[in-house]
Design brief:
Elements lengths: L13 H21 L1 H12 L10 H8 L8 H12 L4
Helix pairs in contact: 1-2
Length: about 90
């Protein structure tokens, strides 16, 4: 199987990598100290998840199974392009 890349990754600057590592370390420290409150904060910031429970009920899963996935534009275009490049439908 031949690997096909849709685009080349841009080289990261060392300081960009360090800044990312520092950010992730700070997030993990926050979660370690604040437990669920920290997780909730990041779930809200990154995923817009503000439900009282993190566990998804069987009813919510059943409701979602038949629904098409939401397309956000860039991510779905990239995903579809990748699948086409791999010969998927």
């Amino acid at each position: 199987m031949v690997t096909v890349y849709l685009e080349d990754a841009q080289p990261q600057l060392r300081q960009d990598s360090r800044a990312l590592s520092d950010r992730v370390r700070a997030m993990l420290d926050d979660i370690e100290q604040n437990r669920d409150a920290g997780v909730r904060r990041y779930a809200k910031d990154f995923d817009r998840w503000e439900q009282p429970e993190f566990r998804v009920s069987d009813d919510e899963i059943a409701e979602a199974v038949g629904r098409p996935m939401a397309h956000d534009g860039f991510g779905s275009r990239r995903c579809c392009s990748c699948h086409r490049a791999q010969g998927c439908r």
